[in-house]
Structures are given as structure tokens and as C-alpha cells.
Amino acid sequence: MRSTAMTTLRYLCNGAFGLCFLATVAPAMAAGDARKGASAFAEECGDCHSTKEGKAKKGPPLVGINGRKAGAISDFAYSEAMLQSAINWTPDKIDAYIAQPRKIVPGGKMKYDGLADAAARADVIAYVLSLK
């Protein structure tokens, strides 16, 4: 009986260590490369979005997007759907949105089918978050 309890305890400790390891390493593995993201941004986003504060194109500028509420740039004409979305832009929300914009904000104005490649999305997000 004692060896069963020790074995169970060993499995629990190993499992807890594994979870702690994943929680620490997984975000680092998911982080994108901002340099690659600049190129992907230019190809996928740059026609419609600016990286310069106060310079809107077809879409709003994306500098300073992290933590910003959707629809917050006063001199940009957002769709009613985006204004009503109540999105607060975090890396996870940005990822979901650029993967499937029409699913995340049905009725939005963005005419983009989405970026399926998760690594490319991570790179774009790293680039956009680096803009100051």
C-alpha cells in the first residue's frame, strides 16, 4: 500500500512540474518575431493600415493597439459592428480577429478573409505590439 501511495505522489509531483513548465515555456514558444512580422504586415495589412499614429488609411492606424478599446480612434469612421463589439485589443483578441475577422466582428467593414498561418499571425502581432 505504501508503494502505491508513493507512486501516486510521484505522478502528482511530476504532473505539477509539467504544468508549471508548460505555463512558463508555452508563451515563449508562441511569441512571434517582430522582424518577420514587419514583412508579413506589409504584405497582409499595410495596404489598409498605417503604422504611424494619426495616419488612417482604409482601416485605423495600429500603433498603440495593445490595450485599446475597439473604436477608440476618434477621427476614424468605424463600422457600427466594430463600435458595438466591446473588444479590448489584447494579443489574443488581435490573433482571433486577424485569423477570422468576419467571425469575430460580424458586419464589420474589414474586407479581409483572415490569415490562417498561426506563426505569421504571431509575427504580425509581435510587430504591431512593437510599434510605439
Describe this structure in words.
The chain has 132 residues and is an all-alpha fold. The chain has 2 domains: 1-30; 31-130, Orthogonal Bundle (Cytochrome Bc1 Complex, Chain D, domain 2). Helix content is 53%, strand content 0%. It contains 6 helices and no strands. The chain has helices spanning 2-30, 34-44, 80-83, 91-99, 101-104, 118-130. The longest helix has 29 residues, at 2-30. The chain is globular and about 35 Å long. Residues 5-9 and 11-29 have low confidence and may be disordered.
Class from secondary-structure proportions: mainly alpha
- What name goes with the CATH superfamily of the largest domain? Cytochrome c-like domain
Q: What is the CATH architecture annotation of the largest domain?
A: Orthogonal Bundle
How many individual domains? 2
Shape: globular
Could you report the average pLDDT, rounded to the nearest whole number?
85
Specify the biggest β-sheet: none
Low-confidence stretches: 5-9, 11-29
List keywords for this structure.
132 residues, mainly alpha, Cytochrome Bc1 Complex, Chain D, domain 2, 6 helices, 53% helix, 0% strand
Task: Sum this structure up briefly.
The chain is mostly helical and 132 residues long. Helix content is 53%, strand content 0%.
List the helices and strands and how they pair.
Elements: H1 2-30, H2 34-44, H3 80-83, H4 91-99, H5 101-104, H6 118-130
